[in-house]
Design brief:
The chain is built from 4 helices and 5 strands; from the N terminus they run βαααββββα. By secondary structure, it is α+β, with helices and mostly antiparallel strands. The protein has a single domain, classed as YaeB-like fold, CATH 3.30.2310.20. The mean pLDDT is 93.
Length: 91
Amino acid sequence: MNYSLNYNEFVVRDDIPKLDKFFRGKIKEAVERKLAVDPVFYGKPLRNSLRGHRRFRIGKYRVIYRIEGEVVLILAIAKRAVVYKTVVGRV
């Protein structure tokens, strides 16, 4: 089953331009290859205030997303140190 990917406006406007060029391509490839195919298997569930969301690790970066039916909604892409604080303000 293939899922469609939907990027939050903050991800497109704020997160993606801040990524290293090397990781930008790597993250795009991993998201399209893995999360679009099986987001439950590749992601890890989050707890507490981010319950219902999942995270996907790519090197030092994290992709925070939520599965809504057949759509994977990507809410934040950032380094581990800041991504969880970032996504709380967007939820």
